[in-house]
Amino acid sequence: MPTDAPALPVGLLAQFYREQARDLPWRNADAGPWGVLVSEFMLQQTPVSRVLPVFRAWLERWPFPAALAADAPGDAIRVWGRLGYPRRALRLHAAATQIVVQHDGVVPWDVDALLALPGVGDYTARAVAAFAHRQRVPVVDTNVRRVLNRIVRGNDDAGPATAADRALLEPLLPAEGVAAAELSAALMELGAMVCTSVRPRCDECPVREHCRWLAVGRPTRTVHAAKQTWHGTDRQVRGRILALLRAAPGAVAADDVGALWPDDAQRERCVSSLLHDGLLARTPEGTFVLPG
User: 3-state class of 252 per DSSP?
Assistant: First the structure.
């Protein structure tokens, strides 16, 4: 049973990961740092099942940063498809361009250099440093945070990962970089597959004997994650507009865009925001195209 000293059963977690981890293409050695970076962009707020086909198509077309940088940003939006949050495609294109210009086409290994890339935040920078370059840095997403909360803190509070979570994990990592990266991956996999947010499979958990939350009777959470909506939102309207542009062989008439949504004010607001974000361009003739 848990003691008062924070700890993680590293050996059990490593065994779980080696025996039960999903076979995902970005975990293969041949994915390289570019494959890891692409996967981390795509996996933000998006399930693995939706990412897999787009990831494979992306790497087949753009196997290294210079290949993506040589194509138009609109091509990135088109291949991104319906993954959602399409600004990620633009930022990934911008990151590839910066990698070519500033790093000779090689994904940097240093966390600070990764943080300087467009679209790369605290989590993504550390994920690439750990999973691609095997550095000893704490990698904490919502899955890892949930596992840490339950095993180490003994609570089930939800919410985004914070610097405090990274500070909690850092001293618990093994000293060697490869083992530290494996532990972060194991925590992530445990949270995704066993220690889930809803209906966790505690009876099947390989570290249940070390879980503070289970030991104190699985108290209910006092902090809840914010729920996101979709239907009727600007996100839905923006998605419809971009889907029309992705499917079109060329420019799309303003009337065709107008027919997509009955609320004129909301539709025009979404068109304006897409233009502002650089996801859409208006031609001199008044038609719409993806950015070139």
Answer: strand
Distance CA 69, CA 53 (A): 21
Q: What is the pLDDT of residues 210-255, one digit of tens each?
A: 999 999 999 987 766 666 677 889 889 999 999 999 989 999 999 9
Name the residue among 14, 29, 214, 61 with its Cα closest to residue 131.
29
Based on the domain organization, do 144 and 241 belong to the same domain?
no
Domain that holds residue 255: 234-289
The torsion angle over the Cα atoms of residues 57, 61, 63 and 65, rounded to 10 degrees, is -110
- 37, 128 contact by CB (below 8 A): yes
CA gap 85, 76 in Å, rounded: 13
Same domain, 66 and 192: yes
The residue to which tokens 């979570």 are assigned: 165
Count structural domains, the chain: 2
Please say if 40 is a catalytic residue. yes
Q: What's the rounded Cα separation, in Å, for the pair 212 and 6?
A: 10
pLDDT digits (tens, 9 = 90+) for 182-204: 999 999 999 999 999 999 999 99
Which distant-in-sequence residues (6+ apart) come within 8 Å of 202 by Cβ?
A: 208, 211, 214, 218
- Look up residue 261 and give its two tokens: 């949504």
Distance CA 183, CA 49 (A): 23
pTM, entire model: 0.85
Token pair for residue 142? Answer: 């919502």
Catalytic residue of the set 40, 170, 182, 189: 40
For the stretch 58-66, contacts whose Cβ atoms lie closer than 8 Å and that sit 24 or more positions apart, written own/partner, are: 59/25, 59/31, 59/34, 59/35, 62/96, 63/34, 64/34, 64/105, 65/34, 65/95, 65/96, 65/97, 65/99, 65/100, 65/105, 65/107, 66/96, 66/100, 66/105
